[in-house]
Amino acid sequence: MILQSLAGLPAFLVYFCTGLIAIVAYLFVYTRITPYNEFQLIRDNEPAAAIALGLSLIGFVAPLVSAIAHSANVLDCLIWAIIALIVQIIVLFLVRVPVPNLPARIAAGELAPAIWLGLSSLAAGLLNAACMIY
Predict the structure, then answer these.
(1) What angle do CA 27, 60, 128 make, to 5 degrees?
(2) Maximum distance among all Cα pairs of the chain, rounded to whole angstroms
(3) Beta-carbon count within 10 A of 112 CB
(4) CA–CA gap between residue 30 and residue 33 (Å, rounded)
(5) What torsion do the CA atoms of 30, 31, 36, 39 make, to the nearest 10 degrees?
(6) What is d(CA 17, CA 39) in angstroms, rounded to the nearest whole number?
(7) Which of 1, 34, 46, 129 could anchor a disulfide with 63, C-beta 3.0 to 4.6 Å?
(8) Is 38:29 a contact under the CB 8 Å cutoff?
(9) What is the mean pLDDT of residues 115-123?
(10) DSSP 36-93
(11) CA nearest 58: which of 133, 128, 113, 131?
(12) Are 36 and 109 in contact (CB under 8 A)?
């Protein structure tokens, strides 16, 4: 009975590790594209950076979850994870249009621009996740 329950463990581990690798890759790319150092700002107790990065991470993970749930195999999942990353990068640039100096304002600790960026990233991620159901 226990062995039957654990039969899916290898697939779980493959997809879980794939998800973790995708998350690390997302954070690496995203934090290199922004002109400020999110992790340093978070270490310095800057809530604006934590809000913007945290919500953008959820915006990436939502479609990643959908990709894991609906993909045919791990390669398919990785392709959709890359698409989710690209969508989040596009959002990062699009939300700057109506808010002048968005990166500098987040780095300066302004919460409204951080919330705008974070929730825009989350909205795009949820839309992206819904579109991945095929």
Answers:
(1) 150
(2) 60
(3) 11
(4) 5
(5) 140
(6) 23
(7) 129
(8) no
(9) 98
(10) S-HHHHHHTT-HHHHHHHHHHHHHHHHHHHHHHHH-SSHHHHHHHHHHHHHHHHHHHH
(11) 128
(12) no
Hey, what's the torsion of the CAs at 103, 94, 79, 39, to 10 degrees? 10
Looking at the domain assignment, is residue 37 inside a domain? yes
Angle (nearest 5°) at CA 115 between 102 and 127: 100
Residue with tokens 């959709």: 80
Q: What is the pLDDT of residues 65-92, one digit of tens each?
A: 999 999 989 999 999 999 999 999 999 9
Q: Is residue 7 part of a domain?
A: no
> What is the span of the domain harbouring residue 32?
21-131
C-beta of residue 38 within 8 angstroms of C-beta of residue 97:
no
List, in order, residues 6 or more apart from 63 with CB less than 8 Å away. Answer: 80, 81, 83, 84, 87, 125, 128, 129, 132
The token pair that represents 43 in the structure block: 């270490």
Per the structure, how many domains does the chain have?
Answer: 1
Query: Does a structural domain hold residue 8?
Result: no
pLDDT surpassing 70 at residue 32: yes
